[in-house]
């Protein structure tokens, strides 16, 4: 028996070694040494947890305060959970799911504490939608990837209980107009949310893409406000307090507000306006003449994407892209557009149109509407990629200050 | 056909006897969770409203606040609240550096107490006493030229402080549709 196991191990080890005949260079690039013919040796046996091919290295790009999704490396509309962007204000808390509790109180008939097990007992719902940080636009140089420009958006299938179910359970007073959502991280993150969103489509979610929510995404439970700026979907949620006014927390006054025209500051800008980005071809891709499928993502926090238009002539003419079904409410949708590039210098762009009739604006339109002193939140401009005659693809940075 | 479904719906409604607007077959209450005690709510409820509801007993002064600030905050926010390396805290109204901080951007003084108590100092959040937070609030309001150096800050006086930037705040008016705002 022992002998057999060790023989098995030996074989397994050999097979693994063969498939990982891969060398990472100092620059982080992988080059592969000759992989022996896989038809001539049995491969590794089934294991408890799968892993990526050793040839694939999609990674987020972390800074001190956030980590951006590699939009250009993804297929389809779901972001793998370990590549979902991160933004938190004081790190990721470690929470024991057995100790976890959610308190709902304030203007309610029955202030109630729910354990995670309680939350899981309620009728469940799954929904695919994006979460995007409202501070999700970077520009400034040609050598930027989609991840650099707007990697603070990701999409998952979320599973949990509708907040309206919990609202009924605790008996929310008809006069309650706002609720405070509070997290149990070291920032004790708080946002005030109109009660109407709670009755509409808000959820308390504990599942993400078929498994428990990842710690960075709010384990063991978070608020989910489909279509609204990511910060409002408070992670690690521990408390909901019903009230008849907003609390004016730091994240809805000092932050997540944007200067607009005439010295005004816009507050409670919840919805994410429609937006799109071409994720292929994008810097640093090198193009070859011939057929190219332009690919990208489009989304709107106000409903469904109705149309995505692509221009391959620097914005002179626009043609509809194909949308990948299903086109979901408040969700990333993949678009594709077939283009025969003959080697000319040009710019390629995309713009999203949602079911409210909103057309993704140019940076110039945003500046015109909000003024040159506009803040950095809720910037969703059409972005262009420059195609050079030699096939180089470069981001076209536009500055407004 | 439509009438048929309407009747079916009414029959189901009667059968389950619930005037609830959820799907037929749902109870009004599931009975999951347990009723929270007043004590456990009080232990967790740290929220503060702009009208001062939630502010604890205690009070603070600019003088004490400056001393605490130099000890517990200056390493990250600079000795005058301007230098950093972390978030700038001082920019009185009319500041010409384009910096946005408490004096020229924050609309409510209560936010300063709430945020400092829940999240600061960054390396030891939740460690300050109510008196310390009142004093730090007084000092930062003074440094931003909003109150004078003798002002005592407590649950009664803090909500009365008028923040100069409040008048700039407007509620989001984007509504979807063709207009860009």
Properties at a glance:
heterodimer, A: 401 residues, alpha+beta, Sulfite Oxidase, Chain A, domain 2, Immunoglobulin-like, 2 domains, 5-stranded mixed β-sheet, 5-stranded antiparallel β-sheet, 6 helices, 26 strands, globular, B: 181 residues, mainly alpha, Cytochrome Bc1 Complex, Chain D, domain 2, two-stranded antiparallel ribbon, 7 helices, 36% helix
Outline the structure in words:
The complex is a heterodimer of chains A (401) and B (181). Chain A has a 5-stranded mixed beta sheet with strand order 7-6-15-10-11. In chain A, strands 8, 9, 12, 13 and 14 form a 5-stranded antiparallel beta sheet that branches. Chain A has helices spanning 2-19, 116-121, 146-150, 163-170, 195-200, 363-370, and strands at 22-24, 30-32, 61-62, 66-68, 86-87, 101-106, 112-115, 125-132, 153-162, 178-183, 190-194, 203-208, 211-212, 222-224, 237-243, 258-259, 265-267, 275-280, 290-299, 305-311, 319-320, 322-323, 333-341, 346-354, 384-387, 393-395. Chain A is α+β, with helices and mostly antiparallel strands and 401 residues long. The termini of chain A are far apart. Chain A is 13% helix and 32% strand. Chain A has 2 domains: 81-256, Alpha-Beta Complex (Sulfite Oxidase, Chain A, domain 2), CATH 3.90.420.10; 275-395, Immunoglobulin-like, CATH 2.60.40. Chain A has 6 helices and 26 strands. Chain B has 181 residues and is mainly alpha-helical. Chain B has a domain at 57-158: Cytochrome Bc1 Complex, Chain D, domain 2 (Orthogonal Bundle), CATH 1.10.760.10. Chain B is built from 7 helices and 4 strands; from the N terminus they run H-E-H-E-H-H-H-H-H-E-E. Chain B has helices spanning 2-16, 38-44, 62-72, 74-77, 102-105, 110-119, 130-143, and strands spanning 34-35, 59-61, 152-154, 169-171. The radius of gyration of chain B is 25 Å and the shape is globular. In chain B, 31% of the residues are buried. The chains are: A alpha+beta (401), B mainly alpha (181).
């Amino acid at each position: 028996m022992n002998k057999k196991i060790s023989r098995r191990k030996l074989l397994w080890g050999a097979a693994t070694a063969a498939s990982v005949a891969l060398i990472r260079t100092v620059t982080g690039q992988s080059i592969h040494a000759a992989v022996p013919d896989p038809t001539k040796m049995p491969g590794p046996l089934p294991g408890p947890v799968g892993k990526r091919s050793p040839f694939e290295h999609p990674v987020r790009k972390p800074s001190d305060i956030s980590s951006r999704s590699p939009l250009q490396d993804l297929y389809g509309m779901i972001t793998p959970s370990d590549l979902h962007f991160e933004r938190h204000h004081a790190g990721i808390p470690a929470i024991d799911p057995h100790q976890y509790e959610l308190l709902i109180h304030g203007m309610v008939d029955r202030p109630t504490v729910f354990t995670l097990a309680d939350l899981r007992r309620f009728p469940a719902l799954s929904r695919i939608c994006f979460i995007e940080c409202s501070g999700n636009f970077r520009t400034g140089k040609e050598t930027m990837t989609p991840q650099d420009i707007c990697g603070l958006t990701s999409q998952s299938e979320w599973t949990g209980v509708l907040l309206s179910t919990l609202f009924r359970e605790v008996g929310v007073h008809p006069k309650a107009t706002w609720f405070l959502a509070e997290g149990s991280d070291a920032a004790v993150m708080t946002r005030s949310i109109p009660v109407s969103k709670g009755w509409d489509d808000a959820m308390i979610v504990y599942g993400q893409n078929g498994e428990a929510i990842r710690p960075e995404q709010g384990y063991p439970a978070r608020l989910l406000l489909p279509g609204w700026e990511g910060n409002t979907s408070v992670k690690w949620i521990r408390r909901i307090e019903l009230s008849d006014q907003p609390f004016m927390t730091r994240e809805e006054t000092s932050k997540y507000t944007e200067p607009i025209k005439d010295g005004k500051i816009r507050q409670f800008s919840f919805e994410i306006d429609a937006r799109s980005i071409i994720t292929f071809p994008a810097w640093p891709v090198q193009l070859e003449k011939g057929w190219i499928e332009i690919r990208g993502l489009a989304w709107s926090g106000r409903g469904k994407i109705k149309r995505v238009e692509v221009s391959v002539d620097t914005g002179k003419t626009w043609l509809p892209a194909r949308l990948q079904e299903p086109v979901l409410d408040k969700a990333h949708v993949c678009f594709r557009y077939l283009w025969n590039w003959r080697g000319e210098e040009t710019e390629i762009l995309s713009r999203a149109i949602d079911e409210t009739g909103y057309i993704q604006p140019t940076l110039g339109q945003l500046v015109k509407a909000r003024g040159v002193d506009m803040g950095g939140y809720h910037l969703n401009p059409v972005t262009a990629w420059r195609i050079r005659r030699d096939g180089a693809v470069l981001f076209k940075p536009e500055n407004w200050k | 056909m439509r009438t048929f479904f309407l009747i079916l719906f009414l029959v189901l409604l009667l059968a389950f006897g619930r005037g609830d607007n959820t799907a037929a077959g749902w109870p009004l209450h599931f009975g999951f969770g347990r009723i929270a005690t007043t004590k456990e709510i009080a232990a967790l409820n740290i929220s503060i409203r702009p009208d001062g509801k939630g502010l604890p007993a205690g009070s603070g002064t600019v003088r004490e606040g400056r001393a605490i600030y130099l000890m517990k905050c200056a390493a990250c926010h600079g000795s005058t609240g301007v230098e950093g390396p972390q978030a700038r805290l001082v920019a009185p109204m009319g500041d010409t550096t384009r910096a946005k901080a408490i004096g020229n951007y924050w609309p409510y003084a209560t936010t300063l107490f709430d945020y400092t108590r829940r999240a600061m100092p960054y390396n030891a959040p939740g460690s300050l006493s109510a008196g310390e937070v009142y004093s730090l609030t007084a000092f930062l309001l003074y440094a931003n030229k909003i109150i004078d150096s003798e002002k005592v800050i407590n649950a009664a006086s803090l909500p009365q402080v008028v923040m100069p930037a409040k008048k700039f705040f407007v509620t989001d008016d984007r509504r979807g549709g063709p207009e860009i705002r």
